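Structure first, sequence second, as always.
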């Protein structure tokens, strides 16, 4: 089933110019890490069983969290490298229109498992899904789902460092289909980040135009304020988007398109 699913999603992406070939990860829905997220992220964060219950009225006993990474095409990444204050046009339009494509992929994923006689839900489609943008948190984090599914670990900037780097979009789905889990390189959340390991690198600190990234980590509120009050007012109307993003800390850095040298 894995092979057919990945083939279906990859084929669905062939007619667009925002993303390169996706990669996939799988986590057991009963992995204890999802329960740990209630302490790490907050008690509001749903477990896979709770997300499943929202749609089907019963918790999930056995199943899988399916995650896909959509790497940005190299041209978009390169266009954002010289930027020092605002995202490039290609980056902003990928954040807006690329996420529309990601929503279509979520729909494709749900239909695929339904056609196999399985139940599935993309948590971001739930009426119960919510995001508090002032607190910079939501009740289902796709980056944390990707970490659980063995697709990477976090960096100083909170970006997920993966085999295809940090310039990507993420999607996820919970299903009662039982699929083999992807092993994690480590349960250590910053396994791939050189700065967190030994104090080396730190390039993302210099890349952040508003000082939201320091040796102490990522100040999400400061980052959010910069986006809402500085980037969006200029870039959204200029590029014809609702959300333009930034991405400076995930481009022109050693983890931009790979796991940094020296990290496995």
């Amino acid at each position: 089933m894995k092979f057919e699913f990945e083939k279906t999603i990859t084929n669905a992406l062939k007619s667009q110019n925002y993303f390169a070939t996706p990669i996939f990860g799988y986590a057991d829905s009963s992995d204890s890490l999802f329960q740990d997220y209630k302490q790490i992220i907050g008690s509001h964060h749903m477990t896979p069983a709770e997300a499943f219950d929202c749609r089907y009225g019963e918790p999930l006993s056995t199943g899988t969290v399916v995650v896909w990474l959509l790497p940005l095409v190299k041209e978009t990444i390169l266009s954002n490298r010289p930027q020092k204050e605002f995202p490039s046009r290609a980056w902003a339009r990928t954040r807006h229109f690329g996420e529309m494509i990601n929503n279509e992929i979520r729909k494709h994923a749900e239909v695929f498992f339904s056609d196999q006689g399985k139940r599935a839900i993309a948590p971001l489609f739930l009426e119960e899904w919510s995001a508090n943008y002032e607190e910079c948190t939501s009740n289902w984090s796709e980056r944390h789902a990707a970490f659980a599914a063995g697709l990477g670990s976090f960096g100083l900037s909170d970006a997920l460092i993966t085999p295809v780097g940090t310039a990507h979009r993420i999607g996820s789905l919970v299903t009662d289909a039982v699929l083999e889990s992807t092993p994690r390189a480590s349960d250590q959340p910053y396994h791939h980040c050189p700065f967190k390991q030994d104090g080396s690198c730190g390039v993302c600190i210099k890349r952040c135009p508003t000082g939201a990234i320091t040796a102490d980590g990522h100040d999400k509120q400061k980052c959010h304020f910069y986006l809402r009050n500085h980037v969006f007012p200029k870039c959204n109307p200029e590029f014809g988007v609702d959300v333009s993003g930034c991405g400076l800390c995930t481009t022109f850095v050693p983890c931009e398109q790979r796991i940094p040298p020296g990290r496995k």
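Margin note: The first strand starts at residue 23 and ends at 28.
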